C-alpha cells in the first residue's frame, strides 16, 4: 500500500487542502480524497498514518449506507471506475480513499452531538454547569453518560479552533427552521448509530456532523462517524471518572501532551511506535464497526 501524504493530480482543479482531505472541483461535483495526514490540536503532523485515509473513507461509506433511511447524503459513488474520465489516470492513487460527491453549500456550523461528558464540554461544565447553554445535572464526572444526548453546535474556523455556541446563536447564523432541522437530524443520527456501535464494543462519546444545501435539500456531507470526527471509546474499558482509552487520535494527543509540545507549528516528528499504535486504533475501529478486515502492508 502506498502511503499518501498529499495528492498532486494535474488536470484536476484543486479547490482546497483541508487537514486530511484534498478537495478537487469537478464542476457540479467534488472529488474528496482522504490522505493519510493526521492533525492534532489543529496542527498537521509531519508524518502520515499509513492507510488512515482508506480507513476513514470506508467507515464513512458504511455509515452513509446505514443512515440512508434517515436522510440523503452527498455521495454519488466511491467506485473509481465510475469517476469522470479525467480522474482515471489516478485510479490507483484514488482507490479506496476517495468519493465523488454532489457539490452543496455547506452550512457554516459544525453539528456536534454529545452523549458523554468529555473534552471541551467537560471543561465548560466544570466552569458553568452548562454546555453550550444547556444546563446539566450537578455532580457529573469526566466521561459520565449524559441523561440524554445533547446538540452542541460550534462555529467553523478556517484557521485555529472552532468555538462552541448556543442553539440560539446557531439559529442566528442559519435561521431558526434550519437550525431546528439540523438539531433533530443530528440527534436522530446519533440515536441510531450509538446503540449499533455499542453492540460492537464502541461507545460514541461525541461526534460532529456537517450538512450542506443543494437546491433547497439538506444533505449529510463530509465524513460521518469516523475516528477523526468522533470520540470512540472501547466499551470493555469504560469507567467514568477518568480519561478513557480510545480508538481515535486521543492517543496521539496524549503523547503530544506528555512530551510537552507547545501545540504550535511545527509539530514534532512522530516515532514509529506512535504511528503504528495510532494506525492500529483506527484499524480496530474499522473492524468493529464494519465487521470486516483491512490488511495493510507493514
Automatic annotation (TrEMBL):
Gene Ontology CC terms, in alphabetical order: cytoplasm
Per the record, the similarity remark reads:
Belongs to the SAICAR synthetase family.
Name by which UniProt lists this protein: Phosphoribosylaminoimidazole-succinocarboxamide synthase
Note the Pfam families from the entry: SAICAR_synt
Which keywords does this Swiss-Prot/TrEMBL entry list? ATP-binding, Ligase, Nucleotide-binding, Purine biosynthesis
Lineage of origin:
Bacteria, Pseudomonadati, Thermodesulfobacteriota, Thermodesulfobacteria, Thermodesulfobacteriales
Q: Where are the transmembrane segments?
A: none
The UniProt entry, under SUPFAM superfamilies, shows: SAICAR synthase-like
Q: Which InterPro entries match?
A: SAICAR_synt/ADE2_N, SAICAR_synth, SAICAR_synthetase_CS
Reaction(s) the record says it catalyses: 5-amino-1-(5-phospho-D-ribosyl)imidazole-4-carboxylate + L-aspartate + ATP = (2S)-2-[5-amino-1-(5-phospho-beta-D-ribosyl)imidazole-4-carboxamido]succinate + ADP + phosphate + 2 H(+)
HAMAP family per record: SAICAR_synth
Q: What is its EC number?
A: 6.3.2.6
Pathway(s) annotated for this protein in UniProt: Purine metabolism; IMP biosynthesis via de novo pathway; 5-amino-1-(5-phospho-D-ribosyl)imidazole-4-carboxamide from 5-amino-1-(5-phospho-D-ribosyl)imidazole-4-carboxylate: step 1/2
Q: What class of enzyme is it?
A: ligase
Q: What Gene3D superfamilies does the database record attribute to this sequence?
A: ATP-grasp fold, B domain, Phosphorylase Kinase, domain 1
Segments forming domain SAICAR synthetase/ADE2 N-terminal:
15-265
Which biological process annotations from GO are given for this protein? 'de novo' IMP biosynthetic process
Write down the PROSITE patterns for this protein, in alphabetical order: SAICAR_SYNTHETASE_1, SAICAR_SYNTHETASE_2
Gene Ontology molecular function: any one: phosphoribosylaminoimidazolesuccinocarboxamide synthase activity
Query: Could you tell me which CDD domains the record lists for this protein?
Result: SAICAR_synt_Sc (cd01414)
Amino acid at each position: 500500500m502506498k502511503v499518501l501524504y498529499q495528492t498532486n493530480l494535474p488536470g484536476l482543479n484543486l479547490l482546497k487542502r483541508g487537514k486530511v482531505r484534498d478537495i478537487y472541483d469537478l464542476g457540479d461535483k467534488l472529488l474528496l480524497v482522504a490522505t493519510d495526514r493526521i492533525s492534532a490540536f489543529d496542527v498537521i503532523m509531519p508524518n502520515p498514518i499509513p492507510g488512515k485515509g482508506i480507513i476513514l473513507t470506508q467507515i464513512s461509506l458504511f455509515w452513509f449506507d446505514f443512515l440512508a433511511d434517515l436522510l440523503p447524503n452527498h455521495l454519488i459513488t466511491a467506485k473509481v471506475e465510475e469517476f469522470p474520465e479525467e480522474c482515471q489516470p489516478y485510479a490507483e492513487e484514488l482507490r479506496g480513499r476517495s468519493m465523488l460527491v454532489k457539490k452543496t453549500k455547506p452550512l457554516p456550523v459544525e453539528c456536534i452531538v454529545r452523549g458523554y461528558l468529555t473534552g471541551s464540554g467537560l471543561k465548560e461544565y466544570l466552569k458553568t454547569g452548562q454546555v453550550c447553554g444547556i444546563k446539566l445535572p450537578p455532580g457529573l464526572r469526566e466521561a459520565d453518560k449524559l441523561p440524554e444526548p445533547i446538540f452542541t453546535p460550534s462555529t467553523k474556523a478556517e484557521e485555529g479552533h472552532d468555538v462552541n455556541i448556543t442553539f440560539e446563536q446557531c439559529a442566528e447564523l442559519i435561521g431558526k427552521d434550519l437550525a431546528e432541522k439540523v438539531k433533530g437530524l443530528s440527534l436522530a443520527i446519533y440515536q441510531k448509530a450509538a446503540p449499533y456501535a455499542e453492540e460492537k464494543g464502541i461507545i460514541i462519546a461525541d461526534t460532529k456532523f456537517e450538512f450542506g444545501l443543494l437546491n433547497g435539500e439538506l444533505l449529510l456531507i463530509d465524513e460521518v462517524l469516523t475516528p477523526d470526527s468522533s470520540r470512540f471509546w472501547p466499551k470493555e474499558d469504560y469507567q467514568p471518572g477518568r480519561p478513557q482509552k480510545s480508538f481515535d487520535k486521543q492517543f496521539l494527543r496524549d503523547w503530544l501532551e506528555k512530551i510537552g509540545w507547545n501545540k504550535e507549528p511545527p509539530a514534532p516528528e512522530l516515532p514509529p511506535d506512535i504511528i503504528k499504535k495510532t494506525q492500529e486504533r483506527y484499524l480496530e475501529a474499522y473492524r468493529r464497526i464494519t465487521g470486516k478486515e483491512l490488511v495493510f502492508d507493514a
